[in-house]
Amino acid sequence: KIFAPASIALDGASAREGSLGRIVLSNLERGGFKGRVACVNPRYRDIDGKPCHRDLTALDFIPDLVVVTAPARRWPAIVEAAGRRGCGAVVIIAQEQERGPGSFGAKAAAIARNHGLRLVGPNSFGIMVPRSGLDAGIAAAFPADGDLALITQSGAIAAGMLQWGARRHLGFSAVVSVGDKRDVDIGDLLDYFATDRHSRA
């Protein structure tokens, strides 16, 4: 559901230039993802003519993947709604300053576990799968398709590696930044990509 979703909901989608919600929405459109994409934000009725829904419960389909750029205070409610609706996974790109056991990130992760949801982040650089046009992240450029999987904690490292690959004409099977690792961690991803037929290394 993370690397091959059929549908995506962007919770925190925004029309404001420079915002996380705008960057991720633009990148989803840039990548050419063929699945269904829905915008979620109670502040908008539409973004660039695309309908915008008040919350996940207002969608007329169940998204495989929920990408979150909304503020930290909203994460527990978003993850709860995703779990109740039967979504497959959540990627939280937004950041929070507090990272203790009582933080919004910790609460969101606990809710995700209760529902059997996998959660990437918070503070993730995002998810990219070039072969399917999936660009659910904040990178300035979309990489070419290839057979190298990039797994990193740091968004800065991800950005630097994408530039390194572009200079050397190297493509990627997938790119993922785990951020704060509230749930999905490096070990999970090594296990996943070890059996991924699209990834050589």
Question: Mind explaining what this structure looks like?
Answer:
There is one protein chain. With 201 residues, the chain is of the alpha/beta class. Helices cover 28% and strands 24% of the residues. It has 5 helices and 11 strands; from the N terminus they run βαββββαβαββββαβα. It has helices at residues 20-31, 75-85, 104-115, 155-167, 186-194; strands at 7-11, 36-40, 46-47, 50-53, 65-68, 89-92, 118-120, 126-129, 134-137, 145-152, 172-177. The strands form 2 sheets. Strands 3-4-2-1-5-6-7 form a 7-stranded mixed β-sheet, sandwiched between helices. Strand 5 (65-68), helix 2 and strand 6 form a beta-alpha-beta unit. The model has no long low-confidence stretch (mean pLDDT 96).
Mean pLDDT score: 96
Largest sheet: 7 strands, mixed
Helix content: 25-40%
Task: Name the strands of the widest sheet in spatial order.
Answer: 3-4-2-1-5-6-7
Radius of gyration: 16 Å
* Structural class designation: alpha/beta
Percent strand: 15-25%
Distance separating the two termini: 21 Å
**Ranges with pLDDT <50 over ≥5 residues?**
none
Number of strands: 11
Q: Order of SSEs, N→C?
A: EHEEEEHEHEEEEHEH
**Shape, please?**
globular
